[in-house]
Write a structure and sequence with these properties.
Blueprint (H helix, E strand, L loop, with lengths): L6 E4 L4 H12 L8 E3 L7 H6 L7 E3 L5 E2 L2 H11 L11 H10 L7 H9 L12 H19 L13 H21 L8 H11 L2 H6 L3 H11 L16
Parallel strand pairs: 1-2
Antiparallel strand pairs: 1-3, 3-4
Helix pairs in contact: 1-3, 1-7, 4-7, 5-6, 5-7, 6-8
Amino acid sequence: GARMPPTLWTHTLCPYAHRASLALCEKGLRPRAFERHVDLSDKPKDLFRVNPRGLVPALECEDGEIVTESSRIIVVVDERFGERRSLTRGPRDEILEFARDADAAGGGFVSSGLSFVGGGWGIRRGMPRQGQVEAFQRSVRALDDRLRGSEGNYLFGADVSLADISIWPFAERFQLAMREFQGYDIAEGAEYFAAWLTAMSARDSVRSLRPDDEALLRSWRRTMRLDYFDYETTSRESP
């Protein structure tokens, strides 16, 4: 049959889907050429054809293969898309392991950050319990230690990799949310992590995919949920 161009079924405010768009960008591609933005509050039937669970992101490849986990999608994008350099330059196995484990429950950056902000995907005003603060600080310290030993600005050296891409969408949101709702600086006492945040923020890929902070904050204040985009019509362009 005819080969279809690849399609990234996405919601442009979802942090998991954000990983896939970021990987496309870093491979020198225009994510908007691949993205099929889905209104998660009114899911089209087509989405369930691609992913019976009705979740994004889902990558529909040219050969019809469908990949549904963001940690796997970014590997496929790196291996098959774009001409630009590999996103696993350096210790490839370590980079892949880091990206694969980014969402592991129990003390990782993503899981402890979500707990810090409010638990689940909710947002709570004020500092969380001491144990939650310490768990998140431990995860940041682990990243800071890795960056201290890195031979560049990024987690595995001088080149951005799938490791950086796997946690950036959460770092971007946590930094904004913690400053607003907890009055907390995400990089407190972590100078290498602070430098990583600065380096990542300055990348064209990151800047091109970042929704307007103030508009996003207004929606967070109104809904007190990081995942409010699951329940109403919204997008990167109008968060």
